[in-house]
Amino acid sequence: MDMTDSIATFSVSVVVPVYNSQVTLEELTTRIYAALEPSVKSFEIIFVNDGSRDESWQTITSLIERYATIRGLNLMHNYGQHNALLAGILKAKYDIIVTIDDDLQHPPEEIPRLLSKLVEGYDVVYGKPESRKHSHWRNFSSHILKAVSKIVLGSEMSRHSSPFRAFRTILRRGFENFTDAQLSLEVLLSWSACRVTHILVQHHSRKIGKSGYTFGKLMVLAFNVLTGYSTLPLRLASWLGFSTSVFGLLMFLYVVIRRLLQTSYVPGFAFITAEIALFAGLQLFAIGVIGEYIARLHFRTMGKPPYVIRDDIGQSLDVPQQFPKIAQETPEGL
Description:
The protein folds into two domains: 8-136 and 154-212, Spore Coat Polysaccharide Biosynthesis Protein SpsA, Chain A, CATH 3.90.550; 232-301. It is 46% helix and 12% strand. The chain contains eleven helices and seven strands. It has a seven-stranded mixed sheet, sandwiched between helices. Residues 13-143 form the Glycosyltransferase 2-like domain.
């Protein structure tokens, strides 16, 4: 069985976040059609215009007039790439979702390879670049973001992640109630995905313009991911406060013991240092504990589910359950 036969039954929604990309949309559409028309059962393309300042939306409306399978979403203003992706993902109607950038750095011709890998039973398949065609600063900041993602997602998910991905639409059950404006699609997928992998794909240089992800923006994104989806900073503060308190307590006991054993000992710098370390550590520890409770409230409000059901088979919940009647014995003499 070749790759085309293995994905022939797939119905695919391709979600493309768009920002100032009017020049590349025509070519992107043509190449997606060329890649998917002979390969899959049916597909749609969802362009999400994320507050573009050029004629991207006009280009999308023009494409919709010529292609019946294209849908366009025009956001009120620029919300960010992951927010635009979430808008498109929640509107997708097919069983498989593919996300791809609008700059043609990830070739659409690789989409069938992602889908073919998905056939093997994976929930998410990432297209990881063989070599990234970015600047040194962009690569450096991307490595920092990967390190943060490793803390939040775990080593298995983070080492696969890429903005070029294919996943099963059923995974959005895990984040359909998500409400936070600060989001990371990788984190949302990790709430449901169990089997994750990647394949190596080509990565081309940008044909026009430059990436909107500057070093500063990637650092802000890394900070938002770390503070928005992890309690590690709070726990570090708690452990630092606890350690400082223990150190201060030991110093205080040392001063007290010396005072009891040496009648001529006069408490001075050591005593003051012990007091400061003890009480400052206790305050920091208390702040960390309070922060833990606030973080738990934060996680509850963002809509993370306690569980996600993959399959539900057997008796339908919509049909009243019938229990067998048990015959009651009539007491003798009645």
